[in-house]
Specification:
2 copies of one chain form a homodimer. Chain A is α/β, with parallel strands linked by helices. Chain A has 9 helices and 8 strands. Chain A folds into 2 domains: 7-158, 3-Layer(aba) Sandwich (Rossmann fold), CATH 3.40.50; 164-262, ProC-like, C-terminal domain (N-(1-d-carboxylethyl)-l-norvaline Dehydrogenase, domain 2).
């Protein structure tokens, strides 16, 4: 299978843009330019890469093969309206934005949504990141798959509707889970205890569902119907009405799921 | 430092009991007996260990050095009332139960609470598990530390009050986090998608807080105040009123934390 090297322009220099630039640089593709509303951010990334220029969207290179819009969701449609790229492939990287907002930019459009959380300074191995691919024609999808293969070993064909549900589910396992860690950290800090005492538990909780179904891994007072412990916990949370509400609602939901799963 | 080998009796043959028996067997201590209300469970564990007998609490060995009550929380006080062990060390393993419920059993009592989630058939490396230790005298605490050192490299001296908060925080990072995974799994299943697409994200979310403070790792629509995406998600959850409530409450809590942390 021939997977020809592509000339890539990346638009967006935030957390995802930074990590994507690094992954493109490690792949055999040519990242020729990074564009950003914030030229300083684009410059900071481009300067670390050997063959990459930077600029604003109005100075965009016209002769690349693929244009990746990795800006925040709210800017994607605006960026697309500012581009006029004929039939060059234009994709965005969002979990929620519809593919069709890219129509003003090109006749060949698609989505490359990496299901991962990105922080500017924390490097991730792109090879393991699931990439959800979508395009507006069979030819475009084939081209996008060939392009994505050197980036990741986990490619999925996912339409816009499915992608939105995956993004929503990702909010639960990432954003909401991280908030559970933050609440725990706040409770421990008040108590002069370190989060270190919970870090092995955090790791093990995630590790278990790598090979198991989460419903089967559920433990704790709610799932075993231990009302005394739940009442003691609710009492302990007297000073935090917001955490108390969260405790009650999630415990109810676990109790409900336990009953439903055991039916 | 001399850490003499101890003769141990383990009471309880559930998830924690099973894993603790394996850890004791790997340590230099002598697990002489496993007692359980359910003799079959005790037998199943004991048969796999070379020098361990099994029985019910009424047949308990009288000449061990330390007795570990690893039953469910509700049974600890009852087991303690059934024992009469003079000044032999008696400890329980619960995150929530007060140490003093052990008083009927012995004059030397304590707690050895492992901050981890246990499943009967999933082996864990006890060496990395934080153990919270408490005892009713300096001598008893010293003895308990010496006993626990071959089991784990993470020993903490924690009193009953602090231990209760740690257990509560553990509910957030384990039970509630796992429920987030379950909700994501339910949403994906309805959509004919596999949880595999989120597993790298689950792993990375946990990995990040191994070296970082969770508040600094928060991403997503709530923390960046992206109301359009939150409204779209709430709409997507129309068919699941319970998940919708959870989405709203956790998003509000993240928004509130973001404002507080940025003050």
């Amino acid at each position: 299978m021939v997977e020809p090297k592509k000339k890539v322009v990346l638009i967006g220099a935030g957390n995802l843009g930074t990590q994507l630039a690094k992954a493109l640089n490690r792949s055999k593709h040519d990242l020729v330019q990074i564009c950003s509303q914030n030229e300083t951010s684009a410059k900071l990334i481009a300067q670390k890469l050997p063959y990459t220029s930077y600029g604003s969207v109005k100075d965009i290179e016209q002769d690349a093969d693929i244009y990746i819009i990795a800006t925040n969701d709210a800017s994607i449609a605006k960026v697309a309206r500012d581009l006029s790229l004929g039939n060059k492939m234009v994709v965005h990287t969002s979990g929620t934005v519809d593919m069709k907002v890219l129509r003003p930019a090109s006749s060949r459009i698609g989505v490359l949504y990496p299901v991962q959380t990105f922080t500017r300074d924390i490097n991730v191995d792109f090879k393991n990141i699931p990439l959800c691919l979508e395009a507006n024609s069979v030819t475009a999808l084939t081209m996008l798959k060939h392009f994505a293969r050197p980036l990741s070993n986990n490619l999925y064909e996912i339409d816009s509707n499915k992608r939105k549900t995956i993004h929503l589910a990702a909010v639960f396992v990432n954003n909401f889970t991280n908030h559970m860690y933050s609440i725990a950290h706040a409770l421990l800090s008040e108590n002069n205890s370190s989060l270190d005492i919970l870090r092995p538990l955090i790791t093990e909780t995630a590790r278990k569902v790598n090979e198991n179904i989460p419903e089967k891994m559920q433990t704790g007072p709610a799932t075993r119907g231990d009302h005394d412990t739940m009442l003691a916990h609710i009492k302990l949370l007297e000073g935090h009405k917001d955490y108390q509400e969260i405790y009650k609602l999630l415990s109810q939901s676990i109790i409900h799921s336990t009953i439903t799963n055991n039916k």
